[in-house]
Amino acid sequence: KNVEKGKDQLFKRLGESAGITQLIDSLYNIALMDARIKDFLTEHKDRIKAAQTIYIVEMLGGPKSYKGKELPEIHKNLNINDYHFDAFMADFA
After folding, report:
1. How far apart are CA 41 and CA 85, in angstroms?
2. Which of 20, 52, 68, 88 has its C-alpha lying 20 to 30 A from 62's C-alpha?
């Protein structure tokens, strides 16, 4: 579905899986130093990064291989709110 009608163009423009992996690595270098959110990421950072990379690859038009839980289920008991999400996205920018 995500490659129909050219929806994979962003995936290709970002350097496919390798480029997105580099992007996520750079994001985590910043996010793990961000006092607003680092506590959510530190304990299981390798597992979180791996799953998030697979998920984002798929969402941006790459191969469909994410087999994890739905995002609301993953985050439901973490007490993450808009403040934390905004902080993560600011690190992403």
Report:
1. 12
2. 88
Inter-CA distances, 36 with 9, 23, 39, 68, Å: 33, 20, 8, 25
pTM, rounded to two decimals: 0.82
Q: Are 7 and 61 in contact (CB under 8 A)?
A: yes
For every one of its 93 residues, what pLDDT tens digit does the chain have, with 9 covering 90 and above? 555 666 678 899 999 999 999 999 999 999 999 999 999 999 999 999 999 999 999 989 899 888 888 888 988 888 999 999 999 999 988
Cα distance between residue 54 and residue 51, in whole Å: 5
CA distance from start to end of the chain: 27
Contact 27, 92 (CB under 8 A): yes
Residue type at position 88: F
Q: Give Cβ neighbours of residue 38 (< 8 Å, ≥ 6 apart).
A: 31, 32
